[in-house]
Amino acid sequence: MASIITATTSSGLTQSADNSGVLQLASGTGNLVTVPSVTGTAMVSGNMPAFAVWGSSGTSLSNNTNTKITYDTEEFDTNNNFASSRFTPTVAGYYQLNANLLLVSSSTGILGITLYKNGSLFKNGSQIVNAGDYIGANISVLVYANGTTDYFEIYALQNNGTTRTTLGGQAYNWFQGSLVRTA
User: What is the largest CA-CA distance in the chain?
Assistant: First the structure.
């Protein structure tokens, strides 16, 4: 049995208790939320870190060189974990990270996108062969962050023969993520 706080229309707020360490919030018709016994911080939707950023101007990519993508505009950063084109989560847990790039190139070649963790290649995203005027790449990964020293950055590589620049803009050059669950 759990400690239950129930809201009913006939008797208002009622409480029944035990010593299980579980708290249940209920309506008069059944349980709505169960909060297990926790140690540390309990995350609720209002305090889970999330961010979305984009590059207003593109990033110049030298031919055959992994290059860090620049993000200079924040849509939101709920826990102030994004700075200098780097996401540094301060809550240990599992994060969904997503990014997208678009490059204008009429020549034959590839565009690849990668997620770097702590300054090293961590996960490869798509690597698209150019078939027209535009070439795009994206990445979507679930990653663990320790909440103290881990950080994440987006890099890109293209081999279209010369230096190319990614398109700037909210729709083309973005990086975003959110905490899925704590560790």
Answer: 75
